[in-house]
Design a protein that fits this description.
With 166 residues, the protein is of the alpha+beta class. The chain folds into 2 domains: 1-42; 47-163, Lipocalin, CATH 2.40.128.270. The protein is 32% helix and 40% strand. It comes from Methanococcoides vulcani.
Length: 166
């Protein structure tokens, strides 16, 4: 009977130890989550930083395959986010508008009406429009607007143009 009592106490002790270890691991994970959340909140782009500015597409950083390209005429590829939740774009010889949603640093550009003129063989209008339709995030780096595209980590870089009057 003593052996049975001793075995029961050992089992209870083992279960209690495993439970405390599991709780300890969970608390550590939660603390890391809190730190990550605080860091994410610090990096959230303020709408005031990005609206009513003509952003000019200046470059593209692609991850697969790794490459970086410069847009030859940034003033021909613009994006203006407006305070009413709409945007306007210039894609070389084409103009368009649409709506956007910004939640934290998640940005979605909903397509709207756009002209469909042929801008010539050297135009980047189709690439620009395709990239904009896959935008997922927004951030600011060194006074540049950075739009994350797709799931590969590709990034569109924009420089400030003119402030746009409402």
């Amino acid at each position: 009977m003593n052996a049975q009592k001793l075995l029961s106490i050992f089992i209870i002790f083992a279960v209690l130890t495993c439970t405390l270890i599991a709780v300890g691991c969970t608390e550590t994970d939660n603390k890391n989550d809190i730190v990550e959340t605080e860091q994410d909140e610090e990096n959230i782009v303020s709408l005031d930083e990005i609206i009513d500015i003509e952003w000019q597409w200046s470059g593209l950083i692609e991850t697969l395959p790794a490459s970086q390209s410069v847009v030859p005429d940034p003033e021909n590829y613009t994006l203006v986010l407006k305070s009413d939740g709409t945007y306007s774009i210039k894609a070389d010889c084409n103009l368009g508008t649409g709506g956007y949603t910004l939640e934290g640093n998640d940005l979605t550009l909903a397509p709207g009406p756009i002209t469909l003129a042929y801008c010539g063989p050297d135009s980047l209008d189709n690439q620009y429009l395709s990239l904009l339709s896959n935008v997922t995030t927004v951030s600011m780096e060194n006074d540049q607007l950075v739009l994350g595209v797709g799931e590969n980590g590709d990034r569109m870089l924009f420089v400030k143009g003119e402030v746009v009057e409402q």
